[in-house]
Design goal:
With 359 residues, the protein is an alpha+beta fold. The protein folds into three domains: 132 residues, Probable tRNA modification gtpase trme, domain 1 (Gyrase A, domain 2); 95 residues, Alpha-Beta Plaits (2-Layer Sandwich), CATH 3.30.70.1400; 74 residues, Aminomethyltransferase beta-barrel domains (Elongation Factor Tu (Ef-tu), domain 3, Beta Barrel). It is 20% helix and 35% strand. The strands form four sheets. It has a six-stranded mixed β-sheet. A hairpin with a 2-residue loop joins strand 15 and strand 16. Helix 1 crosses helix 7. The radius of gyration is 21 Å and the shape is globular.
Length: 359
């Protein structure tokens, strides 16, 4: 157990590799309650978020989720940077037709995102509530994840969950508890993320674990979560994604909708789209199992051309991999480079992302 953004989190329950493999082969069970969960309601909620997020919010349908960036100005600065990446959802409408939306943000950025959003609230028409501590979030990921979760629901609820398309959500009764269930995740596998009342978390977790264990499910910690997302080529804020990042250079261009829109830093993002310069995000595969870590320098001959942002041994592939930011001239797949690992150069080659894609 370790401290992570103020939360006591498991790095591993048994073996990181075993948990990783269980997720790829059957299912992994993750407590992701540390993620920030914000509710945005009111007649002006959609228009308000439309002016604050990089992804278009207008036109989002009930039950739909979208990946977005949260741009904003830190205290003492007038220039907008990327405060976080997030999932925005339309959770449905109130009886009077008022939209209900949600944001899921990173634990390490929750406080500053809430502070920024609160500073942008209009006098009326929008209400922002941080629901992180009154709810819990559980991810079930893997080829048998949906089967396991549906087995705890009545037929109607199970049918709706099974029919969900990616980045869609529904409400169901899970083990007797009301849950918001979305077809989403952070592992490269099929699966769902479940939000329940905090008081129901332990019962729901135990029910999923008991139902899934005979099918190969394993409880998973932060270690397996990181190796899984790395194999899937998914960026992590603070590593591949940083406040000053160019989203078009790191493969997140689809998270930025610019035409006809206005949000903090929109002109800066337009400039990035039209004249994207500097280093780009690539994958690296190594000839050995020795993993590079964040900050390892990348070389061609005697010239430093980049830096590793995330690296690990990839259990599914049986070799070490990394994501890195490197000069564009060296970003072509197959390009040979050296990575400095503990003062020793290790050979690697550039490869397209993701490293792993489920069948």
């Amino acid at each position: 157990m370790v401290d992570f953004a103020g939360w006591k989190m498991p790095v591993q329950y048994a073996s990181i590799v075993d948990e990783h493999v269980a997720t790829r082969r059957a299912a992994g069970l993750f407590d992701v309650s540390h993620m920030g969960r914000l509710a945005v309601t009111g007649p002006g909620a959609i228009d308000w978020l439309e002016g604050l997020l990089t992804r278009k919010v207008a036109g989002i349908e009930p039950g739909q989720l979208r990946y977005t960036l949260v741009p904003g100005s830190p205290p003492g600065s007038s220039e907008a940077v990327i405060l976080d990446d997030a999932i925005v959802s339309r959770d449905g409408d109130a009886a009077d037709g008022t939209p209900r939306l949600g944001l899921v943000v990173n634990a390490s950025n929750r406080a500053r995102v809430v502070e920024w959003l609160e500073s942008q609230l209009p006098a009326t028409g929008v209400r922002l509530v941080d629901r992180t501590f009154e709810t819990a979030m559980i991810a079930v990921q893997g080829p048998r994840a949906v089967e396991i979760v549906c087995g705890l629901c009545a037929a109607d609820d199970a049918g709706r969950i099974a029919a969900l398309r990616p980045y869609r959500a529904t409400t169901a009764h899970l083990g007797g508890h009301v849950a918001a269930v979305s077809r989403s995740g952070y592992t490269g596998e099929d699966g769902v993320e479940i939000v329940v009342a905090a008081g129901a978390a332990e019962a729901v977790w135990d029910a999923i674990h008991a139902a899934g264990k005979p099918l190969g499910l394993a409880a998973c910690g932060l270690g397996a979560r990181d190796t899984l997302r790395l194999e899937a080529g998914m960026p992590l804020y603070g590593h591949e994604l940083r406040p000053e990042s160019d989203p078009f250079a790191i493969g997140l261009g689809l998270s930025v909708t610019l035409d006809g829109r206005s949000f903090p830093g929109v002109e800066r993002f337009r400039g990035m789209r039209e004249h994207s310069v500097g280093r780009v995000r690539v994958g690296l595969v190594f000839d050995s199992k020795r993993a590079a870590r964040e900050g390892s320098s990348i070389w061609q001959g005697e010239r430093e051309i980049g830096v590793v942002t995330s690296g690990s041994f990839a259990p599914t592939l049986g070799q070490a991999v990394a994501m890195a930011m490197i000069e564009r001239a060296a970003a072509a797949p197959g390009t040979a480079v050296d990575v400095l690992i503990r003062d020793t150069r290790q050979s690697a080659r550039v490869t397209p992302l993701p490293f792993y894609r489920r069948a």
